[in-house]
Amino acid sequence: AVRASCGDRELVACIVGCETGVALADALSEELGLRTNGTEKNRRNKSVQQRCVKAAGLRAVREAVGTSWQEVQDFARGETMPVVVKPVESAGSEGVKLCHSIEDAEQHFNLLMGAQRKVGSFGAAVLVQEYLRGKEYVVDHVSRDGVHKTVMVWVYDKRPCNGANFVYFGTLPVPADSEVAKVLIEYTRGVLDALGIKNGPSHGEVMMTADGPCLVEMNCRTHGGDGTFVPLARALTGGYS
Questions:
Q1: Mean pLDDT, rounded, of the chain
Q2: Structure pTM?
Q3: Sheet of 126-130, strand order
Q4: Which ranges in 56-203 belong to alpha helices (H)?
């Protein structure tokens, strides 16, 4: 049906446009024989991401994942509060909460599990993670056949607001030739390789901690925000599109 809709035009690529299309774009590109990242790994699953990064010898977040509180409670009790509780699949800080007590963590865990089951989320599970302290950066790439090109580097301006811990106030560009950007870019490209992301856009979120960069999550699609960042990026680079 996809090929038929193209008519006489050549079908050259299948590029994901938003978070919910990641799995579909991987499956379509693989089925159509186009450049693809394949479907072997569930790249939207944040726990899968961290396991792949850790296996590659890169700094990964300490975490536990489960579908019941009993599966993660020992980890939560062993961590210094606060801890982060969030869904395994989400975007834009949706469902993410900084919990300052075991009781708070358990309550939010159960809330997320209940909400995911109500909407029939496939493979629903919840993560409990160490709270990474530092500055959070964004490293955007586009890749082709395993060659990664850095598009932009940003630093988030996130603050507590209206009862939420991680509210986006904005993003600020970071010079690509700065020392922090060089470290972030090298680390992020290692993450892309660990996740098997060889083709297409990616939007990596990385915390620069006291002991170096650590993946928050890798979004296997373009930078979001409805494209509000594009005019600034284009003005800074001259070729961003």
A1: 89
A2: 0.86
A3: 63-66, 126-130, 83-87, 97-99
A4: 69-78, 102-118, 179-195
What backbone phi and psi angles, to 5 degrees, belong to 199? -140, 145
DSSP string, 163-210: TEEEEEEEEEE--TTSHHHHHHHHHHHHHHHHHT--SEEEEEEEEEET
Q: Under CATH, what is the fold of the domain 62-130?
A: Dna Ligase; domain 1 (3.30.1490)
Q: What is the pLDDT of residue 119?
A: 44
Q: Under CATH, what is the fold of the domain 134-237?
A: D-amino Acid Aminotransferase; Chain A, domain 1 (3.30.470)
- Is the pLDDT score of 13 beyond 80? yes
Q: Which residue ranges make up each domain of the chain?
A: 62-130, 134-237
Q: Name residue, tokens 């083709």.
A: 199
Tens of pLDDT, residue by residue over 162-199, are 887 778 888 899 998 999 999 999 999 999 999 999 99
Q: Do the beta carbons of residue 36 and residue 6 sit within 8 Å?
A: no
Residue type present at position 15:
I
